[in-house]
Design brief:
This is DUF1569 domain-containing protein. It comes from Halalkalibacter oceani. Pfam families: DUF1569. The protein has one domain. About 50% of the residues lie in helices and about 0% in strands. Helix 1 runs parallel beside helix 6, helix 2 packs parallel to helix 5 and helix 2 packs antiparallel against helix 6.
Length: about 150
């Protein structure tokens, strides 16, 4: 399983982000490319311990049982619901969002497992750094595929 803590996997994601264009059309969902990049950046903030969305009742009830969906080898389903705090609906500027996301990915990868947040995922709950690394790669891969990259 790919993991954002693996340097080659992080480099793969960065190259793919560079192939996203501002006018790329989503194959599913409502976000445009700039909003997708902002959404992924906001998700990075959660994993890096810079943002702490609260856990909803559904996550508290079933999140730990659904947790393997976040880091297993199966692709995330299209149009899967998202964490409300990182649902991006307002317009965003493409290039600044792209650069911000790339910086966060590099920082996350360079900082390593030791600095990954101990704070629970808002839906899935407590994750190990390895589960975060796999899940973040999977989340980024999902959204890059959404835009054909």
């Amino acid at each position: 399983m790919r993991n954002l803590f693996n340097q080659l996997d992080a480099e793969d994601i960065l190259i793919r982000i560079d192939h996203v264009s501002a006018d790329a059309k989503a194959q599913w969902g409502k976000m445009d490319a700039a909003q997708m990049l902002a959404h992924c950046s906001a998700f990075q903030d959660i994993a890096m311990g810079n943002s702490f969305p609260s856990r909803g009742w559904l996550g508290r009830l079933v999140g730990r049982f659904a947790k393997p969906l976040f880091y297993n080898d199966k692709p995330l389903p299209k149009n899967m619901s998202t964490i409300p705090d990182i649902l991006i609906t307002e317009p965003k500027e493409f290039e600044p969002e792209k650069e911000k996301l790339k910086r966060k990915i590099i920082t996350f990868q360079n900082n390593g497992r030791e600095t990954c947040t101990p704070h629970p995922h808002p839906f899935f709950g407590k994750l190990t750094p390895d589960e975060w690394g796999k899940g973040i790669y999977k989340h980024l891969d999902h959204h890059l595929k959404q835009f054909g990259v």
